[in-house]
Amino acid sequence: RMPAPIRLRELIRTIRTARTQAEEREMIQKECAAIRSSFREEDNTYRCRNVAKLLYMHMLGYPAHFGQLECLKLIASQKFTDKRIGYLGAMLLLDERQDVHLLMTNCIKNDLNHSTQYVQGLALCTLGCMGSAEMCRDLAGEVEKLLKTSNSYLRKKAALCAVHVIRKVPELMEMFLPATKNLLSEKNHGVLHTSVVLITEMCERSPDMLTHFRKLVPQLVRILKNLIMSGYSPEHDVSGISDPFLQVRILRLLRILGKGDDDSSEAMNDILAQVATNTETSKNVGNAILYETVLTIMDIKSESGLRVLAINILGRFLLNNDKNIRYVALTSLLKTVQTDHNAVQRHRSTIVDCLKDLDVRAMELSFALVNGNNIRGMMKELLYFLDSCDPEFKADCASGVFLAAEKFAPSKRWHIDTIMRVLTTAGSYVRDDCVPNLIQLITNSSEMHAYTVQRLYKALLDDISQQPLVQVSSWCMGEYGDLLLSGQCEEEEPIQVSEDEVLDVLEGVLISNLSSPVTRGYALTAIMKLSTRFSSVNRIKRVVSIYGSSIDVELQQRAVEYNALFKKYDHMRAALLERMPVMEKTAANGPTEIVQTNGEAEPSVLDVKHVPSAPQPSVQANDLLDLLSGNDMVPVIPTTVPTKPASAGGELLDLLGDLSLTVSISQPPFLLDGISSQPLFNDAAAGIPPMTAYNKNGLKIDFTFERSNSNPNVAVITIHASNSTEADMTDFVFQAAVPKTFQLQLLSPSSNVVPALNKGTITQVVKVLNPQKQQLRMRIKLTYNHRGSSVQDLAEVNNFPTQSWQ
Amino acid sequence: MQFMLLFSRQGKLRLQKWYVPLSDKEKKKITRELVQTVLARKPKMCSFLEWRDLKIVYKRYASLYFCCAIEDQDNELITLEIIHRYVELLDKYFGSVCELDIIFNFEKAYFILDEFLLGGEAQETSKKNVLKAIEQADLLQENQSEDWGGLAAEEVL
């Protein structure tokens, strides 16, 4: 005979003596093997012990699925110990995704009707914890029966089980309605608590139920009142408060019932005031009730006096030593600051104090409370927060500071100083999209230009590592470098700066390893701009020509264009590089907008109106001239750019030649002011929705769109082919044809295998030239091998979004 | 409540109760991530944190962390009381409970939890009633073993 399997506690003890992971694994494997053979022998006596051991090993992270059926056998046993372990095992090892769990249904059904309430309890608990939708459907009737029993031990469990059933199968909710009729008349707190949970669930799911249960408000109010007014009840007392769990649940249900309903809200007004004023606040439990009360007061139609009371409670919470209490207060205040702004303002100093905790909620609240009157004081505190907070929050804080400064700055100088402060102390955390915004702000503060550029110049002397700072500074130096030289500065002691010193700094940025490619772009453009403001044109020409052969394609491109400006288009240079006019701000924070200028659609970062040099980014020299929209010059220019390999073939290829296959060029920048070297066209193109062009036999082809960098008549389509079948599609070839007025170019695909089960896609770029802006249509041909046979299909694609061809 | 985890300061899991259906793989991933997150918290930080779309409420009792995941509309402060009540129940049952009790008698820790919470909600708010139910169930276990012969109650597991 096999020796008795090792006992559970013995096993635990043994496993804990293992000194290494490997040793533990060995012990586990040995025991699992023993357990497996024991299972095979269908040993009834020790099954319970073996499953318990398995559950322990499962908790350590080892696989235990081979014990699933054994759990079912234990559940079916008549021994209580077996059932206890069996149900526990089912809850730990089985999940509703496996069919095996359905085998439990019958056992549970029997046990729900067992003569022993503790067995019934096990069944209710298991069903209420992990019952699948099918199980719930089968057993809902039993649960409903038990919901009507007079046995409170079972009734309370049935109520929560019903909650689970309703969550899994909402359509069954109705059947529990009759049983809820007198649930609240129960004296037993367990039943009361679970009944309130059940009713809450039903109200949350159905407006009809909500209306139906509104009539319970007086009863709920009465129960709550009894809890507060009744003397000490040892059974339910927690630090002098009677059944806080039930109180909180009732308050939550009242919230749901009172929301949007005048009568109900009025009916609960008094009790809410009572709870709010009488609850003991020295311990967490009292504050838990107050917290729920505040949430309820804020959500229902309460009188203003009550609302003020609620906010004052939150204000008091902020002064609590317990940081948990401060946390929930800040969270709640954030929710109410919009609707009850003035009431929250009264607690501003307390909230600001919480900034010292470096809680980001306090920061968010502070920003919400900033106004023209308190901006100076608030900003001091917020800047302190910016300095000390977790790096994770610095970007948000910086953005918030900029926004607040923009809205409420008491003076332009203060505004510039604040921007400077953020850039110099948290410069590396400032978001990229703040840079154009800041530049625009600076541009618009015309009387501060000299002061600004002087401060920014000095900042760069100290530190060129913080990219946003360097970018803004470079831009300003390029734009206002002349003011630096002239030494006019009203606000500060003007400094003596020479042209060479300025150019030294900018060149230093260009060379430095610390500078990002974007920053370098700013610096180069700034240097170029100075060619019309400084006299050291030769030095600038030299720098520009050096970068004409930079390996950074962005930089190279700019340098080549600027070179061209010096050489062939010198007569236009002054006009192109002249001072930026004051820009008008769009309502939102500088979104990309398509601005119609000269009949050509061009995106711009800001709503730039009548900027004479709204440029068309391009690589080609001929497009360069398009910039001079005021002039009617249409010179004949060779289409190739000197640095590119000569393109063979006709004009079509030249047009698209800039998007060459071998060199991936990032978006060409605006010639003028590097306000944004972000690919603006992409932002415009982001508005073109993708589409599904073909979806048949498991092969799906989606199209995504971009507009060409240089030519708005070219649509750049990327096809994405995916395969939902279980076999790969090999030798996949995509072909397309377009009507005569269009021209098509197909680039190489990413591969010719579309993997099965959507494990990957083939992508391929298709460029379509549509100079007449006609409605785009396409015929596609697909060929591939699938499951040993070759497949071919033709299809018409007609559902192109209008933005892709207009 | 979506789930409750008990783990040691070394990150060893002592109890896991899931009230939402998830695969074993997902449970392991969540457990790993959450344990790491909670253990990284400094003592002066508050007991609440936002994690994925859930609110996490945790509290350390001696060498054990009790960690609950609740939903947006649930009350964090009362969840702390739920955790505390569970610890009180364990304490009463085991007599000055310590981590070792829960390690060696994990199945009892589950039984107690299952008499206190059901489907993630409190089913009984009276400490006395929960303990009474456990006591009676234990007694049933003992008596059955006697009636049916076979192993004595203490020898079953």
Could you explain how this protein is built, in words?
Chain A: InterPro entries: Adaptor_Complx_Large_Subunit, AP1_complex_gsu, ARM-like, ARM-type_fold, Clathrin/coatomer_adapt-like_N, Clathrin_a/b/g-adaptin_app_Ig, Clathrin_app_Ig-like_sf, GAE_dom. Chain A: It holds the Pfam family Adaptin_N. Chain A: This is AP-1 complex subunit gamma-1-like. Chain A: Residues 686-801 form the GAE domain. The complex is a heterodimer of chains A (806) and B (157). Chain A has 34 helices and twelve strands. In chain A, helix 9 packs parallel to helix 10 (189-205). Chain A is 53% helix and 10% strand. In chain A, 44% of the residues are buried. Chain A has 806 residues and is of the alpha+beta class. With 157 residues, chain B is of the alpha+beta class. Helices cover 47% and strands 22% of the residues of chain B. The mean pLDDT of chain B is 93. Chains A and B meet through helix 1, helix 3, helix 5, helix 7 and helix 9 of A and strand 2, helix 2, helix 4, strand 7 and helix 5 of B.
Question: What labels describe this entry?
Answer:
heterodimer; A: 806 residues; alpha+beta; Immunoglobulin-like; five-stranded antiparallel sheet; three-stranded antiparallel sheet; 34 helices; 12 strands; 10% strand; extended; B: 157 residues; two-stranded antiparallel sheet; 5 helices; 47% helix
Short overview:
Chain A is an alpha+beta fold. Helix content of chain A is 53%, strand content 10%. The chains are: A alpha+beta (806), B alpha+beta (157).
Total strand segments of chain B = 7
- The number of helices of chain B is 5
- Taking the alpha carbons of the first and last residues of chain A, their distance comes to 86 Å
Helix content of chain B: 40-55%
Mean model confidence by pLDDT of chain A: 83
- Order of strands across the biggest sheet of chain A? 5-6-7-10-9
Rg of chain B, nearest Å = 17 Å
Bulk shape of chain A: extended
Structural class of chain A: alpha+beta
Report the oligomer.
heterodimer
Low-confidence stretches of chain A: 587-685
Strand residue percentage of chain B = 15-25%
Major β-sheet annotation of chain B: 5 strands, antiparallel
Unreliable spans of chain B = none
Shape of chain B: globular
Distance between the termini of chain B: 31 Å
